[in-house]
């Protein structure tokens, strides 16, 4: 006989949803990395006790509704403009904790200029970058981050580097800029990686509190719907294909 | 030494049956139900409750934060 029922009691609780995460059911596809990263941001905000002083900047992309899930103040940016809006918010209210949350289509395609210039200016903000190698929301089109040979709805035969160029390693590029203090690449496909990614997000917020400049956390992610795989297959595919092009680890930590 | 014993509670209505908890569990505790919830998803449940060690991996990895984890304090012999 199992003693499950006796174990389920408040004094044995070791993991539960943080109250900073609202009870709304997320609109994301089953297994989507966006949900996992939202949870980590909420947990960090909870642990640092900054719920009342944090302002998120939501992007355009699948995470356009991020403000429905994390119980803080938010602003919604036009596509790709989150770093510009984060700049304004942080400069007007330097006592607030400000972060942008952006996909690869948002941060590394339409918003490339805003991304690079905010990082180059060393804006004292946190940028969370969900790199799933595709435009998830609009139907899985090729993004600047799509891997060579990787199929997408606008390149069904796979990305042809001779025609489309090589995928952009935006984090490597941003790590070159003097304004960034912390650039790291993480993933959330295993429990160990989730725990590491959370530490990185926490460190980024602490950097902001220490006025160190821009911290960028890239999370190599899956878009299992766009990739046309099950969530578990997508995690495996990511491990086998994405990590060799986008290796995990810190690119800069000053 | 007493082995830690755990248990999980799944919010079965919120669960989308993505299955990442099933593959992350080190002791194969979790199954997806043959039955579906109100949204039509095969929700996760403790198919093998005796094997749970309360590591919290499933709770940590769940994208929809549907899993609450408990671990009994080891009893000193
Ligand atoms: C100015 C403008 N151009 C194009 C679009 C269409 N659009 C909406 S989301 C999106 C891409 C989002 O991809 P990504 O940032 O990778 O986020 P994901 O959905 O994958 O999370 C595009 C092109 C738009 N909403 N606004
Ligand atoms: S389309 Fe892709 S990125 Fe968007 S919610 Fe679904 S899995 Fe996530
Ligand atoms: S707490 Fe650990 S052992 Fe128990 S069901 Fe979750 S992953 Fe499996």
UniProtKB/TrEMBL annotation, chain A:
Give this protein's Gene Ontology molecular function annotations: oxidoreductase activity, acting on the aldehyde or oxo group of donors, iron-sulfur protein as acceptor; thiamine pyrophosphate binding
Q: Which GO terms describe its biological process?
A: cellular respiration; small molecule metabolic process
Instruction: Give all residue intervals belonging to the Thiamine pyrophosphate enzyme TPP-binding domain.
Output: 67-219
- Secretion signal span: none
Q: Any idea which UniProt keywords this protein has?
A: Oxidoreductase
Domain of life of the organism encoding this protein? Bacteria
Recorded protein name is: Thiamine pyrophosphate-dependent enzyme
Organism, scientific name: Plebeiibacterium marinum
From TrEMBL, chain B:
Keywords of this entry: 4Fe-4S, Iron, Iron-sulfur, Metal-binding
Q: Which PROSITE patterns does the UniProt entry name for this protein? A: 4FE4S_FER_1, 4FE4S_FER_2
Q: Which sequence ranges are marked TM in the entry?
A: none
Pfam families per the record?
A: Fer4_7 (PF12838)
Q: Where is the 4Fe-4S ferredoxin-type domain?
A: 6-35, 43-72
Molecular function GO labels: 4 iron, 4 sulfur cluster binding; metal ion binding
Gene3D superfamilies xrefs: 3.30.70.20
Asked if the keyword 4Fe-4S belongs to this entry, the reply reads yes
Family matches, as PANTHER family: ADENYLYLSULFATE REDUCTASE, BETA SUBUNIT, BLR5484 PROTEIN
Q: Give the protein name, as stated in the record.
A: 4Fe-4S binding protein
Species of provenance: Plebeiibacterium marinum
């Amino acid at each position: 006989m199992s003693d499950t029922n006796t174990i389920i009691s408040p004094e044995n609780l070791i993991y539960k949803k943080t109250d900073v995460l609202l009870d709304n059911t997320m609109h994301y596809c089953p297994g989507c990395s966006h949900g996992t990263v939202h949870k980590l941001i909420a947990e960090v905000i909870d642990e640092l006790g900054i719920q009342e002083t944090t302002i998120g900047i939501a992007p355009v992309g699948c995470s356009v509704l991020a403000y429905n899930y994390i119980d803080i103040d938010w602003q919604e940016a036009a596509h790709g403009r989150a770093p510009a809006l984060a700049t304004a918010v942080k400069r007007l209210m330097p006592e607030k904790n400000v972060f942008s949350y952006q996909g690869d289509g948002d941060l590394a395609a339409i918003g490339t200029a805003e991304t690079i210039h905010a990082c180059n200016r060393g804006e004292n903000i946190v940028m969370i970058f969900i790199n799933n190698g595709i435009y998830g929301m609009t139907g899985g089109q090729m993004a600047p981050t799509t891997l060579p040979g990787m199929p997408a709805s606008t390149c069904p035969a796979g990305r042809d580097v001779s025609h489309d160029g090589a995928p952009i390693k935006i984090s490597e590029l941003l790590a070159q800029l003097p304004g960034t203090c912390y650039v790291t690449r993480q993933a959330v496909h295993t429990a160990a990686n989730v725990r590491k990614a959370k530490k990185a997000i926490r460190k980024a917020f602490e950097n902001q509190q220490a006025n160190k400049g821009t911290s960028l956390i890239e999370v190599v992610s899956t878009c299992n719907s766009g990739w046309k795989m099950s969530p578990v297959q997508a995690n495996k595919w990511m491990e086998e294909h994405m990590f060799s092009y986008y290796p995990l680890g810190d690119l800069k930590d000053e | 030494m007493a082995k830690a014993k755990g248990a999980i509670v799944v919010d079965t209505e919120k669960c989308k049956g993505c299955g990442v908890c099933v593959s992350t569990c080190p002791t194969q505790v979790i199954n997806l139900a043959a039955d579906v919830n109100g949204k039509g998803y095969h929700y996760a449940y403790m198919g093998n409750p005796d094997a749970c060690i309360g590591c919290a991996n499933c709770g940590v990895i769940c994208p929809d934060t549907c899993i609450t984890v408990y671990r009994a304090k080891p009893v000193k012999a």
